[in-house]
Amino acid sequence: MNNVYIIAGTTLGVIGLITLLGYLTYKKVDVPGWIGKIKGFLEGAEDLTNIVEQYNTNNAKIEKASKFTKFLLDQAINAVDGTEQLYVSSQISSDERKKTAKEAVLDVLKTQGIKVTPELENVISIYIEKACGDETIKDVNKKIDELVTSIKKEKEELQLKLQKTESENETLRATVNNITTAASVAKSNTSQI
């Protein structure tokens, strides 16, 4: 039953198109010129489609490169953290840290089947330097936090001393007032005698 509708619809569409073309020719409309313009538009659309496909291909390449770059940076950070632990536990010297970190990243890449080129080694070295710099910044920030905590503690201690001194000052003022009052009373009592 569906085939009947498809055949009938197609037939009506073709008859309508023939009738429309005949009518447009009768009205002296340049039908071949319009068909040429439509053909040119469709060819332009095909070029546009090709450009969009190339963009998507390039975009996929960029996305893949971005993921790989993030992977490399993560591996560099992990390698620097690991070598720092080796250094802290005295398993490697200070001078060996960057070399050991670089070797660790290269080993990870080799186990993943990634061919390591001199350019890639250069990028890895840069990422390790960045990760080392990040670690240095973390160390500096840690020292700053320790100093700030120490200063806050000192401030709290000084505030406690200030409160204690103010309390003692109030006690002394009260004592001075009592002595002054007692002296006034004693003076007035001696003058009445």
Keywords:
90% helix, 4 helices, 193 residues, mainly alpha
What does this protein look like?
- The chain is an all-alpha fold.
- Helix content is 90%, strand content 0%.
- The chain is built from four helices and no strands.
- It has helices at residues 2-26, 31-88, 97-111, 118-192.
- Helix 2 packs across helix 3 (97-111).
- The chain is elongated and about 145 Å long.
Secondary structure layout:
Layout lengths: L1 H25 L4 H58 L8 H15 L6 H75 L1
Helix pairs in contact: 2-3, 2-4, 3-4
Succession of helices and strands: HHHH
Distance between the ends: 138 Å
Query: Number of DSSP helices?
Result: 4
Query: How many whole angstroms does the radius of gyration measure?
Result: 44 Å
Percentage of residues in helical conformation: over 70%
What is the strand content?
under 5%
Task: Give a quick summary of the entry.
With 193 residues, this protein is mainly α. The chain has four helices and no strands. The protein starts with a helix and ends with a helix.
